[in-house]
Design a protein that fits this description.
By secondary structure, this protein is of the alpha/beta class. The protein has eleven helices and 14 strands. α1 packs across α9, α2 packs across α3 and α8 packs parallel to α9. The longest helix is centred in the N-terminal third of the chain and has 17 residues.
């Protein structure tokens, strides 16, 4: 197979001045590290591959190119992740002559990893690097769902030169884009153009305001579960918890909440790419934001180690893993069928498509309770529309 090391700079960071956890208890003993003297030659043998992208071109947050190595250094100071998840740190993408060259290189590396079943964890850099995610799925020929955790939806009504504030324009309007569905979790109404929000809503995007997300954080888990790529902008976190970025807000997720969202992404059966962007060490306070970013990655890996891959068994009614519930709702010809996992207590809805096939859409216990009140959940309508094509 292709040697991806041609596109990567090996890991090269200074050893921390002190280590709270020494020996095998430390995170660095959790993974294989690609160094100049000992590169990781077969990254597809690992479940997770960390990739730094030190490029802040096309970003108004200059200085975030320093984020990957600082985050990596702080990550190595954390504890070993429980379990036997095989992970590797492949180093940093070699930055290209232009930003587009970097995007192309990142997309190429991710393409080979995803194709082999390895989950790339992108440590940015500019959030405009998300363009590489779209290009990766386009090359794979895979129609995908993108979930962004961000206080600002990086989409504008006008088509302008692409940067970190409007990269979604190219993804959503792009003729070659493979995006099928877009989700944003944690947007703040007063930071967004209502025209942009309305345009996305007309395209059936799912946009969850920060207040709604924080009021019932567990209801974001089904959104993560059905997403192929989940990308975090550190600005989704309130300024008091993450000051190290250009566009902060006094409101947003708390550190514990953003880590829980990351874990939800980790346990997702569908997820193929994870990323975190816009951490700017130049604006940070005593590594506060870099430490939080490291912990976000840690919780993602911890979640990935608990992945059950239950979606592969939903059709099997003899396994004993699931309980099926038939709910009659007035004005519906057939019963709605809900499926609950006896292992994780997660829920799905069974959808019969016009082609005669059966699909499953992630949902919550609350959706089941709503159906029992003779109300059709909004998530059911979205799922029927999604699987009609």
């Amino acid at each position: 197979m292709t040697d991806l090391n041609d596109y990567l700079e090996p890991v090269s960071i200074e050893k921390p001045e002190f280590e709270d956890l020494e020996g095998p208890a430390g995170f660095s003993h959790n993974l294989s590290i690609s160094t100049e003297s000992n590169p990781v030659k077969e990254p597809w043998k690992y479940k997770i591959a960390l990739i730094g992208v030190p490029d802040d071109r096309n970003s108004l947050n200059r200085g975030c190119s320093k984020g990957p190595d600082i985050i990596r250094k702080r990550l190595y100071m954390l504890a070993r992740v429980p379990g036997k998840t095989k992970a590797a740190d492949l180093g940093n993408i070699r930055t290209g002559v232009t930003f587009e060259d970097t995007v192309s290189g990142l997309a190429y590396v991710m393409y080979h990893l995803v194709k082999a079943g390895t989950i790339p964890v992108i440590i940015g850099g500019s959030s405009a690097l998300s363009l590489a995610v779209d290009r990766c799925f386009s090359e794979l020929g895979h129609r995908y769902t993108l979930a962004c955790v961000d206080s600002r939806i990086d989409f504008t009504p006008n088509r302008e030169e692409t940067d970190s504030r409007n990269y979604l324009n190219r993804i959503i309007y792009g003729n070659k884009s493979a995006i099928g569905h877009f989700v944003n979790i944690g947007y703040q109404t007063y930071l967004n153009d209502y025209q942009s929000v309305n345009r996305l809503l007309k395209r059936k995007a799912e946009l969850v305001r920060i207040g709604d997300a924080r009021q019932a954080l567990h209801l974001t888990e089904p959104l993560m579960r059905d997403s192929d790529a989940v990308l975090f902008d550190i600005a989704a976190v309130r300024q008091s918890d993450a000051p190290g970025t250009r566009f902060t807000s006094p409101n947003g997720f708390y550190g514990e909440e953003i880590c829980l969202l990351s874990r939800y992404a980790g346990i997702s059966d569908s997820l193929k790419i994870f990323g975190i962007f816009e951490v700017n060490p130049d604006l940070d306070n005593n590594f506060q934001t870099s430490d939080l970013a490291a912990q976000i990655i840690w919780f993602f890996i911890e979640g990935a180690g608990q992945k059950q891959n239950e979606a592969d068994f939903l059709d099997d009614q003899t396994s004993g893993r699931f309980t099926r519930y038939h709910v009659h709702v007035a004005d519906m010809e057939d019963d709605m069928i809900f499926v609950r996992s006896n292992i994780t207590d997660r829920w799905w809805m069974e959808i019969h498509t016009p082609k005669g096939t059966i699909k499953y859409a992630s949902c919550s216990h609350e959706d089941y309770l709503l159906a029992n009140k003779n109300e059709i959940p909004e998530r059911w309508f979205r799922a029927v529309e999604k699987f009609s094509f």
